[in-house]
Amino acid sequence: MTQTNIKTHNTESFRQHFMQEVPVLNDMLKADFGKFFIVRVEDMIRLVKLPVPPTRATNHTLIFLTEGEAIMTIGNDTYTIYKDECLLVPAGQVFSFKHLDINKGFLCNFHPDLVIRKTSLKDALNDFDFLNVWANPRICLEPSQALPVQQVLQRIFQIYNEQGLRQSELIQAYFITVLYELNQAYQPLSGNTQTQAIKLTNQFKALLFQHIKSKHLVSDYASLLAITPNHLNKVVKQITDKSPTKWIDETLVLEAKVLLYQTQLSIGEIANELGIQDPSYFSRLFKKYQKQTPTQFRKMIDKS
């Protein structure tokens, strides 16, 4: 059977599916908005068709709040941020949100090329850990850190609002400054100082993201990493407080949720898409983590 790829929305596709087409949107999103745009959070959220189901995007998204709160599910976890805090959704990561949050701040959407053009892909991912799909998406800033970030974002917003991307080099320079400022405050999901263990755990999560449809065993990933399953179990549990098996299971369920939203495939076909040959096992696995069967989950979608 040919695998069904989960749809990853570019900025134009996301707009078509999840945004209200009103004149003010054209004023907010300038020409070439697929490369970069910045808007006020409070202006954008009112135009979103809520809820936004689990989906992926080709661009990175950065939300920085100056007031209120924002709630978003990124990967398998739900995050709430407040004043002087950021959420960063890396390109390709699964995200969803459903609340009309009361807040103020800035939302930036940017293509990876915006960063790569000034450095390289390797340098960007090394310099900005939070651009990786396995990273901690929540960044909390001290007031002394938040102030310069807010000021630079305000300057970028002013340039973009007045000139669009006609001053793209200036916008790029300012925005990379923001990323470096955020990097000063960024904390990995684990505060553990054992850098080799953290590196191995992140490699595991990156491989999981790539191979979840075909590799479901801890031994599969241990083999890819050239280590023993016992060592992988020990390290991942130590760093994340979750076993590799739980990481694998939760990622399968996350992929299933996206397929349940995006396709009309039967439950058996979705199980097959995920490399699970036994639909009843798939249903049990889904219910274990979601507290409802795939069929019940789909009915909930249909009612929303």
How does this model look, in words?
Strand 5 and strand 6 (77-81) form a beta hairpin. With 304 residues, the protein is an alpha+beta fold. It has a 5-stranded mixed β-sheet. It has a 5-stranded antiparallel β-sheet with strand order 2-9-4-7-10. It has 14 helices and 10 strands. Helix content is 50%, strand content 17%. It is globular and about 55 Å long.
Give me a quick take on this structure.
By secondary structure, the chain is an alpha+beta fold. About 50% of the residues lie in helices and about 15% in strands. The longest helix is centred in the middle third of the chain and has 21 residues.
The number of distinct β-strands equals 10
| Name given to the CATH homologous superfamily of the largest domain | Regulatory protein AraC
- Assess the beta-strand content as a share of residues: 15-25%
Main sheet: strands, sense, barrel:
5 strands, mixed
**Tally of separate domains:** 2
* Low confidence ranges: none
CATH class of the largest domain: Mainly Beta
Overall mean pLDDT stands at: 91
SSE order, one letter for each helix or strand: EHHEHEEEEEEEHHEHHHHHHHHH
Give the spatial strand order of the biggest sheet. 1-3-8-5-6
Shape: globular
**CATH topology value of the largest domain:** Jelly Rolls
CATH architectural designation of the largest domain: Sandwich
Oligomer: single chain
